[in-house]
Amino acid sequence: IPLSVGFVGLGAMGRPMVANLARKLPAGSRIYVHDVVPTVVEELCTEFAGIVDKSDSAMNVAQLSEIVITMLPEGSHVKLVHLDPESGIIAAKFADDKVIIDCSTIDTTTSLSVKAALTAASPLLSFYDAPVSGGVLGAINATMAFFLGCSHNDPNLHRLTAFLSLMGGKVIPCGGPSLGLAAKLSNNYLSGIITVACAEAMDMGMRAGINARTLASVFAAGTAQNTICDVFNPVPGVCPKAPSSNGYKNGFRVQLMRKDIGLAVDMARTVGAKNVLGISGLGVYAAASEASDCQDLDSRVVYRYLGGRED
Ligand code: NAD
């Protein structure tokens, strides 16, 4: 059955997600898109003429669509796009059930407050948080994972899983509202802190005289084995396809990792969890985000920031 889908936020992640939907949705489906940057909207409408149409506000996107996705930078953008009384999703008038999915990585409190405001304004609406993991490549190849903020017996789960699978490889229901975000922030906290530990351990062993590749193979065979060391090793030359071996380009930007670790540290405070490593890790990512030789590069550039050698 053809679907009408809305999409707001056509950046590094949103744009390839729309492209996958345009290729995979049943014939006759429409995708209504909106972004504050007009060029990206025009480009998508030209590339997928007859499937993708532009809308001049999030309200109009929601008005026209059965399912709406938002993929925005931060909580402030999510609040604006969802709750602006003039042009936000909340201003749309619905006659039928509607599903709104926010895929942005934001704090759980904002997500819960957006859900509460939207469902209070329109009882026919269901709102879910569904942040993603897998980066821009995962968005392009539709291999990323969705961490879905819903219970295992949610009546929409089957439909949501089928729909999100058009853009990703895995959909994991995390138990209830905002828990997709709690899962995502916990995941990025862990991978961000492992990266700093890996950078320090690699640098230490190399300074003691061990070759970088030998050291990585020791970690792979020992109890330190982990994906960052094996696949995204921060030391240039260890993993030829990793961003570190390609000038730290085309990866997960260090500023995004700073944002996510900051959100995770806030969440830890809110729920009363200890995060000794998070506080120092956040300091490393914050400083690297501002260093001219690290800014805008892949987050594994913290190896460079920490003084690791790159020859
Ligand atoms: P981006 O900055 O490339 O794209 C965001 C888009 O939202 C931009 O096109 C911007 O113009 C648009 N936008 C901002 N305010 C708007 C508004 N009021 N109305 C309409 N459009 C608006 O960001 P991204 O890299 O696509 O990331 C989006 C989210 O996904 C972030 O929360 C990020 O943390 C998360 N994420 C990113 C990656 C990654 O590798 N880039 C990976 C996983 C998760």
Automatic annotation (TrEMBL):
GO biological process: L-valine catabolic process
Assigned EC number: 1.1.1.31
Family: Belongs to the HIBADH-related family. 3-hydroxyisobutyrate dehydrogenase subfamily.
Record organism: Podospora australis
Enzyme class (EC, first level): oxidoreductase
InterPro entries: 3-OH-isobutyrate_DH-rel_CS, 6-PGluconate_DH-like_C_sf, 6PGD_dom2, 6PGDH_NADP-bd, HIBADH-like_NADP-bd, HIBADH-related, NAD(P)-bd_dom_sf
Domain of life: Eukaryota
A GO molecular-function annotation: NADP binding
Catalytically driven reaction(s): 3-hydroxy-2-methylpropanoate + NAD(+) = 2-methyl-3-oxopropanoate + NADH + H(+)
Domain 6-phosphogluconate dehydrogenase NADP-binding: 5-174
UniProt GO cellular component terms: mitochondrion
Entry annotated with the keyword Ion transport: no
Annotated catalytic residues: 184
Keywords: Branched-chain amino acid catabolism, NAD, Oxidoreductase
Domain 3-hydroxyisobutyrate dehydrogenase-like NAD-binding: 180-305
Alphabetized SUPFAM superfamilies for the sequence: 6-phosphogluconate dehydrogenase C-terminal domain-like, NAD(P)-binding Rossmann-fold domains
Pathway: Amino-acid degradation; L-valine degradation
Protein name, entry field: 3-hydroxyisobutyrate dehydrogenase
